[in-house]
Amino acid sequence: MMSTTAKQELPPYARVVADIRARIDGGELRPGDRVPSTREIMREWGVAMATATKALAALRQEGLVEAVRGVGTLVRREPDSAPDPRDPREQREYRIPRERPRPAEPTERRLVADTALTRGAIVRVAITIADAEGIEGLSMRRVATQLGVSTMALYRHVANKDALVTAMIDQVYAEHALPEPPPADWREALELALRTEWGIYRRHPWTVRLTMLAGAVQSPQLLENAEWMMRVVSARGRSPDEAMAVLTFVSAYTSGMALQATRAVVEDYEFGMDAEHWWRSRGPEFLRLAEQGRYPLTFSISGPPDVRGVFELGMKHLLDGLTPLIEGGATTAEGRSGAVPHPDVQDSDPGPGSCPLRHG
Fold this sequence. Notes:
Layout: H1 4-8, H2 12-25, H3 38-45, H4 49-61, E1 65-68, E2 72-75, H5 107-115, H6 119-133, H7 140-147, H8 151-154, H9 161-175, H10 186-203, H11 208-211, H12 220-234, H13 240-262, H14 275-281, H15 283-291, H16 307-326
Antiparallel strand pairs: 1-2
């Protein structure tokens, strides 16, 4: 068994792995038992969601646990193992009782439960699941299981998963709606909009991939945000096309920074890992590279980047650069303000389903 001192020297995620592995080896967690969820790991070990997610992924890679859709992460059973009927601990179901499908009920009771269901409750639970497990962990069945209703009951309130995801985006942005009227100073207004969106991406990392320029979702509240920012720029005398160019610039910056900060598009087992945790998790690897002496500048930095500070610095300089365009001083080679499309793409067809207001 690993000593307490040795365990304390491990990265946070590795300490969680060591503790859960010890519970499995010691028989406290037996094949088919549910291991702590990401939320439970966060509470018990006091770690971030990214650390909890990585710990469960490491256990899966070791072959100790397996993810069962709609149930959670369970201690893996050996394929050829059979329960020992003499052992009362082996008489438990593979799925824990509180999360397996509900037993058959009289029709009247089921109808009461399903009728009490609301669209708002479905969306809130779906957001909670996506926050904890990423958008990949979301399914209609998973939401239904969490709510304790039949999957078909959900379809009385949302048409399909795409409609659910759109409603989730709409809800998240509605909760952080930009104020009316916007601040009179355009720079103050855009800073507020960018910080608001940055906050959404930090709290809900799964949203960034769905709301970027090439994202898959358009919702009324996303369009409200786009319209709000375009009004801010248009109030300075800029045309709608020029306002859209500014919106594209600033939104690309925010979503790009969010991807860097949250690592939302990486391997599944690192979903949601922020920059600081990523740097710290690779400490030994970085030390080996630093010892080679080939990257003196890279390894002379004081530590992991201050993501928020970098975001604020980049936003300041981005808006500094956009000031001439927004205030009317910048002109293109054609003698008008605004951005000119690249000659190779300016006449290209945006393709079916494209929307100029899709933004990140």
